[in-house]
Design a protein that fits this description.
The chain is mainly α and 63 residues long. The protein has three helices and no strands.
Length: 63
């Protein structure tokens, strides 16, 4: 190759690039998590939802 020629950085990088799988990146489906971990993930949102429902049904709501 002639040193005065421009090298396309895209083509040079694409030769060395390897596809990254999601398993290597550490991201897994939530459905692949153990059941106890899924419950711990959803529990705070459910607790807040129930607290909001109880607060809305109580007489403490300012009217």
């Amino acid at each position: 190759m002639n040193p005065t020629q421009d090298v396309d950085p895209q083509s040079a990088a694409s030769k060395d690039a390897k596809p990254v799988s999601f398993h290597c990146a550490g991201t897994r489906s939530v459905l692949a998590w153990p059941a106890w971990l899924r419950l711990l993930t959803v529990a705070p949102a459910l607790l807040l939802l129930w607290l909001a429902v109880l607060w809305a049904l109580s007489d403490l709501v300012p009217r």
